[in-house]
Amino acid sequence: MAELPSGLLEACVVVGAPSDKLRELPQHTKSSELPLLDPEVLQVHAPPFVSIEANSNHVIGPAFSRVQRRRSFIKKKRRDRAAEGVSNGDSSSRHEASPVPATEDISVPKDLDLIALPQLCFPDGLQLASEQKDDAYHFLVFTDLFGNRTHGVVVQYYRAVQSFQDSVFQNGHRWNAPKSRLFAPFAVCIISKFPYYNALKDCLSCLLVQLRTARQADLEETIREFSAKLSLVPLPPPGQLHVSFSLRPLQVVLPSRDDQDSPVVDLNLHLPLLCFTHTALLQVLSCLLQEQRIVFFSSDWARLTLVAESLLLYLQPLSWQQPYVPVLARGMLDFLMAPTAFLMGCHINHFEEIAAETEDLILVNVDDGFIQTSWSEAVDLPALPLAAAECFISRAESLQLQYDLELCHLGTGTDVNTLRSQRRGWQQKLNSQIQNIALELVVNIFRGVQDFLNHEHRVFNSEEFLRTREPDDQLFYRKVLETHIFHSFLRDRLNRKRDSFSRMEQMTQSHAHRNRAMTESPRRPPMSELSRAGPDRKLSKRLGASLPNLDQPINESVPLNANRLLSIRKISPDSGLKFLQKPLKVFRLPEFPPPLAYHYVQNYYSDMVASLGKAINATPPDESALLARYHYLRGLVNTVSNRRLDALEDFHSLYKTDAEIFPSQMVNSLIDSLPDVERVQADRRPEIKRLISRLKREQERERATQGTGQEDAAVKRFQLPKKYMHLEEFVKCVQESGIVKDQGTIHRLFDALTVGHQKQVGPDLFRVFYTIWKETEAEAQEVCLPASVLEHIDAAECVFKLSSSVKTSRGVGKIAMTQRRLFLLTDGRPGYVEVAQYRDLEEVRVSSAPFLVLRIPSLKIRVHGRKETFEANLKTETELWNLMIKEMWAGRSIADRHKDPQYMQQALTNALLMDAVVGSLQSSKAIYAASKLAYFDRMSLEAQMMVPSTTSETLKHKINPSVEFAVPQAVDVLLYTPGQLWVSVGGGKVMVYDASSWSLIQTCQVGNARLNCMLGVDRDQVWMGSEDCVIYIISLVSMVCNRQLTEHRAEVTGLALDNEKYCHKVAYSCSAEGTVMAWEVSTLQVKRHFRLSCDRLQSVYSCGGVLWCCARDGIMEVWRNGTLKQHINLPEQQRVTFSSALLITESEELWSVCVDSAEVYIWHIKNTSRPINRVMLQDCIGCYCMIQVKNQVWVGGMGRSSTKGKIYILDTERYEVLKELHGHIDKVTALCSAEDRYVLSGAAKHDGKVAIWKVEDRGLDSSKC
């Protein structure tokens, strides 16, 4: 049986006093003496309410019947009492105890606790009344052992249960007093898996309209019919589509979740802002984050749950992990003695009692808006970080919380549903603003956590994270870091979960921080941040400007006030926080069927399917997100109505349109439930067959990875080693510590620490090394430079090393080392004396200065353009500074030559490691050991680090997509779209860079396999062909992969657009086994497809009504219908393996290159019998990619020399090599052009970098390279 999707209703439970108890009440009861009764479950209604039954006699009896699933505890108790109190011969008792088929005890939802439910429905007890009372609503949350929650909405209403007259005797006469009536409360509780509090409250309000006019005998049937209607309501999918239905007199709306991981929000999120001051509210949130034992109090039961739920939503995406009971009945107060953290709610009447009898509780009075502890009126807990709290308060103060102010300009409404719709729209807008403000608070509290995670080893370096927090905030963070809520949050970060937190953190990140994330460098705040904030450093603010020209230093160009900028700035509730608001649509369900017989319900489902079909046909193809939601809903409806194959077709359309909301578990269950006949029919439908095979492959992949348990693995805290470590263990330990990730650097560090010893590092040595590294880092952060010094250095510079006070040729002071220069910080009144920028150095050497009879070692530095030599008497530090400065000099020189800032960052890391090694070894061999880390100083003398002049002139910049990996990753594909560079590295990881600054702006995961090709389609999507046979479609707006094309049966190797002006936009794709498909871009439908006979089809290109297809064994010109026009190849004795082909339309030429040849072959497309020209590439063993830029062809290949990655620039008119560029140490695997101004090249795994080259119309002759 397929797993049916959850509907709105899980169960409907009626609770009250049993009728026999009410009949037993004494007739003369006074209103002041009304007893308190024990509530019991009277009815349980749970789906399915309608099912088909195959009658044993097909001629007689109905083929359809209604089967009510309910449990009557009253009848059960009667049976039990009757069985105990009568003899076996009492037939009437046996009749009373006999089962009634229509109400036979059957299973109720497994997560429903019917024992505790009566108390929760009447938390104050079931009290009779002598007069009619108002209906009262409250809300419940149930949590099972696994932490799964279900939600309940309860209404208490009163019905007259007894009326009587008292006889009065007076003066010997008897007369009757006026009739007296008793009213008993009953509770109807709707239970749902999702917190649709407002919607279910509306449903119960509609039910009470019917119950007030219903006869006593019809009550059960009325509630059953009501429950059955709610069970027919499907839940809306995540996204922009709501669902509404009519229950008369109200139109009820079910809002959808924002995305798959977001909770349903169907309550008024501003309630806590009405109950608490902003300071008190932040205090409550701080207690929740620290997982205290918290009790809410209110005189209104409904307020308890709504406020608690709102506060937990404020903390999203952090999720409360502890016991949670927002409503405690008075018989459950002993729950508050639990030793663990919890969040519970009680009536205000119990406040004094609980405060006096319990310890270590946080008591929150929701009615009066104050918070205290059970032992004191003050709360002695760490507050939220000050900067985050100030930002929250500033934004919250600008919220408009009063709906009446919105009504000032409106007339009086006459239609209740119109008025409700207006209020709902206002509330949704306010909820969105509050969610943004609360999310910003969470982001500001935990910003930067990602920087202290090691994903490979699943380690969080908590101590290093704490060092970056303000001293006044550290106690708060120490408490939070130990909580379950934070541990779950960390696990999501390690799993690279793309949720609201990660999106906002990236969106509000300062531009300088984004740029620093591109390079692996030791963590130091730039002096601009330290100087702005001084000792009270605040959060970095968002910086929206692009980085300047690459030739200039990277500065933050937006000045920020050192004082409380947020408090003096006018802030709107969502300034700087707005996500793209998608227009909301509401799908209205058909009217519910009057009699709930099977065939009427099937007709209802058919009407819903028809309505959804009309909505799908009326939705334009470019609204793919809305189309996906309609397909999702129709798939759900077809599933519950047993139209399994139709459901699978809808889910296939959903999978192609928005895989993010695809219900994999439900669809797999549906596939497994297919009968043999339907499975045969499914195999005959290509779309369904493809979906089934695709899901089976995914299941196999999941089973293969389940053994690792990586996603659910615990998050480890970094700990210093306790035993000796060999190289492999040492690499892991250093990576976990966050010092450095690069394995080559760690290997050199291992060699340095083991000089003169056996090849293992002891725990004591590593502890000393680690301590010195951290102390040096802390000392650098404590450097506070005066304004007179800061004006001489760049805003992004950091002081990484400060010498002791020494005598120099320019005065007495401390030598400071930044990533760009050396300068002297003079003693006394601090002053700035520039020593040198690394690129200007001419000579660095150790000398000795005479002092009495001794010679004191000193460091001499010569700078280009200066006559005098700078000399510093660094004494015992001389040799170390000599090593560090030479390494920085070499790193700067190589970085300038290669236009690669990563080299400078690596040199800086090497220099700081030298410092830590010398400090930890403290021996005569310390300097020799440190020299093992002088990597660039040695490499600067080697030929492979030398860059030819032509290469240096053409090379603009380099970026390193592999910076967060331990080893470089191959660049598989490059794509330029306006303003952005897309880089694909191994395993489907795609990085997006800002093309104005080449800074990283986005990272996304596209499948799990290598990508072979990328194509910009329209202005809002990028198509990516993968080894796993899928074409993934990325939205340029949301940067999310939510659509997939799964028609290919082999890896997708090429993508192309039809460039015809007067036809619908068509995209072509090809796969390795020779299949070519033409896609209608607007509908994502295959217009036609055909298969070519070839050896691994690699690319496709459309031009002039024909397709040009390149395979390893030749190039084919093919008509659009698949007919082969011509096959182009070399003579048999000269056969090669083609890798790329390029059509030069201006000259009607076809250019091609091969992986096993150093020649470029050129054909005229009208005569392809033999090449018209061949261009020999010097020092080349094979080529892999080729593009046209202006009147040039750029070819990426592999050379024989030490510099293996080569790019050849050819003139298309003269058929000669203009330039030969040496930009990579591994073969060039990808090329793309950026508006014909730049060419970008990517290399294989030994290099893993992207080079950016300037394009010129004509270049130098290759002989000058």
Automatic annotation (TrEMBL):
InterPro entries (alphabetical): cDENN_dom (IPR001194), dDENN_dom (IPR005112), DENN_C (IPR043153), DENN_Domain_GEFs (IPR051696), TPR_DENND3 (IPR057977), Tripartite_DENN (IPR037516), uDENN_dom (IPR005113), WD40/YVTN_repeat-like_dom_sf (IPR015943)
Superkingdom classification of source: Eukaryota
Keyword annotations: Guanine-nucleotide releasing factor
UniProt keyword annotation of Iron-sulfur present: no
Key word Transmembrane helix present: no
GO biological process, one term: regulation of Rab protein signal transduction
GO-annotated cellular components: cytoplasmic vesicle
GO MF annotation list: guanyl-nucleotide exchange factor activity
Annotated segments matching region Disordered: 74-102, 502-536
Gene3D superfamilies reported for this sequence: 3.30.450.200, 3.40.50.11500, YVTN repeat-like/Quinoprotein amine dehydrogenase (2.130.10.10)
PROSITE patterns linked: DENN
UDENN domain span: 82-500
Annotated protein name in UniProt: UDENN domain-containing protein
Annotated organism of origin: Poecilia mexicana
Lineage, uppermost ranks: Eukaryota, Metazoa, Chordata, Craniata, Vertebrata
